[in-house]
Amino acid sequence: MTDWPVLALPDEAATITLGRRCAKALPDDVSGWTLLLSGDLGSGKSTLARALIGALGHSGPVPSPTYTLVEPYTLERGTVYHVDLYRVADPGELYFLGFDDLDTGLRLVEWPDRAPGLDDTADLSIELDYAPTGRLARIRGLSPRGTDLARRLAL
Ligand SMILES: Nc1ncnc2c1ncn2[C@@H]1O[C@H](COP(=O)(O)OP(=O)(O)OP(=O)(O)O)[C@@H](O)[C@H]1O
Ligand SMILES: [Mg+2]
Fold first, then answer.
1. Contacts of 24 (CB under 8 A, 6+ apart)
2. Is this prediction's pTM over 0.90?
3. pLDDT tens by residue, 66-76
4. For 128-137, how does the pLDDT look when each residue is reduced to its tens digit (9 = 90+)?
5. Whole-angstrom Cα distance, residue 100 to residue 69?
6. Domain of 52?
7. Residues 6 or more apart from 148 whose CB is under 8 A from it?
8. Residue-level pLDDT at 72
9. Is residue 119 a part of any domain in this protein?
10. What CATH number is associated with residue 67?
11. Cα–Cα distance between 143 and 82 in angstroms, integer?
12. Which of 41, 69, 81, 137 could form an S-S bond across to 102 if both were Cys, CB 3.0 to 4.6 Å?
């Protein structure tokens, strides 16, 4: 699949719908998956993450992990680690964060570009861009199963 899907997200509700669709498209057990959410400040990463975590069964607030770096959620479909690397200056900090050990759950990573090389171990990338009306979501599969997920999100 060389032409990755680009979805138009004209408003916040569309971003929320995409987050919910990701939750639906993932397998029942989400353990071991890594999804990357990139895009400029205010592009909608946390909106999408919040909708995804909510659709996986979490009720209640989804605070931004900007300061804690990781917020874990223990859900029926597996543990979700909501990770925000915005404040990570040196990729070595990931080691101290214990990032590799988080593969027991679904790693949902905002600002993945702070840690070059994350693409190699991830399944799917969603890149949010500003558009004249709302946002665009560029979806890219990074593993075979992620490519399958990307194809299903394009439908
Ligand atoms: N498709 C969309 N069209 C227009 N506005 C949107 C869309 N999706 C989200 N927004 C709005 O954009 C704003 C910023 O969203 P959000 O906080 O999720 O961005 P972010 O990428 O997490 O930002 P930051 O990098 O600063 O944490 C919110 O007000 C949200 O409602
Ligand atoms: Mg955010």
1. 55
2. yes
3. 888 999 999 99
4. 999 999 999 9
5. 14
6. 21-112
7. 141
8. 96
9. no
10. 3.40.50.300
11. 20
12. 81
Calculate how far, in angstroms, residue 53's C-alpha sits from the geometric centre of ligand 1.
16
- A 10 A CB-CB count for 78 gives 21
What is the chain's alpha carbon radius of gyration, rounded to the nearest angstrom? 14
**Largest Cα–Cα distance in the chain?**
40
Ligand nearest to the CA of 10: 1
Host H or E run for residue 145: helix 144-153
Q: How many domains does the chain have?
A: 1
Q: Please give the pLDDT value at position 68.
A: 87
In a domain, 60, yes or no: yes
Going by C-alpha positions, the residue among 59, 14, 66, 23 that lies closest to residue 41 is 66
**How far apart are the C-alpha atoms of 48 and 139, rounded to whole Å?**
13
Best mutation site among 40, 43, 126 for ligand 1, i.e. most ligand atoms within 8 A of its Cβ? 43
pLDDT in tens, 49-59: 999 999 999 99
Q: Is residue 36 part of a domain?
A: yes
Q: Is residue 3 part of a domain?
A: no
